[in-house]
Amino acid sequence: MRETASTVRERRPAAIGEASTATFLKTYLRPLLVGVLAGAFLAAIGALGTGDMPFVPRVLYWMALSALGAVLGNTIAKGVTWLWPDLDSTWPRGLIIVALLTPTFAALVWFAAGRPTPTPRVVGAYLGVTLIMTAGMTTLMMLATRRTVTTHAAPPEAPPPRFLERLPPKLRGGEIYAVEAEDHYLRLHTSKGQDLILLRLSDAVAELEGVEGAQTHRSWWVAKAAIQDARRGDGRAVLTLKSGVEAPVSRAYARTLREAGWY
């Protein structure tokens, strides 16, 4: 029996809510896994004088603390993104997260250890260990959750992308296929050939807004319309452009591009 339109409408909010909840929980799953692994490492080395504890309680102690710290760190990261949504640079965001998380997590570990007398030596030890831990976990999470930088097609009435003004005369009027970073230069791949210009890739991607494309590798941006073929081998993907040039897809961006239908 077919469902009525009203029945579908009644079910839709619940489905959306369930999807939102699943997405929310999924964002905390990876930090929890990283926290558990970090806790196992701290237990193995007997951090902060816990080497005399029996092994199983020590592992449970550090895993629980590290998992809690991972949840706290992920929450702080979301707060940083909310407060500074335009802060696109990865490492400044990471430094802010570490600066906020370290004293908070140090206080958490201090309370869990029974609040030892806060002498300068004790404070230094707790801050030092938690700084190493939070910096390591933040770095791992940033590498594991690196976002694909994308550009979007502009509406018909929009002005042309600013990047087109940087094209050398011999490439003017050509279709942009890709931009490849080479040291301090960018190699431009177009329908009229190649050339080099002096510019950072991050600046080029910002000026390419208006052309549908994405960063496929830390040193490559590719226009979606320029892709002629895609293949996978040895766990990596390679995009073949209309010019025959092959652009790599790094593992950090592969899943996002695949889900977006690039290959």
Order of helix and strand elements from N to C terminus? HHHHEEEEHEEEEEH
Mean pLDDT: 81
Biggest sheet record: 6 strands, antiparallel
Radius of gyration: 24 Å
Number of helices: 6
First-residue to last-residue Cα separation: 38 Å
State the low-pLDDT regions, or none.
1-23
How many beta-strand elements? 9
Helix content: 40-55%
Shape: elongated
Entry keywords:
single chain; 263 residues; OB fold (Dihydrolipoamide Acetyltransferase, E2P); six-stranded antiparallel beta sheet; three-stranded antiparallel beta sheet; 51% helix
Describe this structure in words.
With 263 residues, this protein is of the alpha+beta class. It has two domains: 5-144, no CATH class; 151-259, LytTr DNA-binding domain (OB fold (Dihydrolipoamide Acetyltransferase, E2P)), CATH 2.40.50.1020. Helices cover 51% and strands 18% of the residues. The protein contains six helices and nine strands. The strands form two sheets. The protein has a six-stranded antiparallel beta sheet. Helix 1 packs across helix 2 (55-83), helix 1 packs across helix 4 and helix 3 (90-112) packs across helix 4. The longest helix is centred in the N-terminal third of the chain and has 41 residues, at 5-45. It is elongated and about 70 Å long. Mean pLDDT is 81; it is low at 1-23.
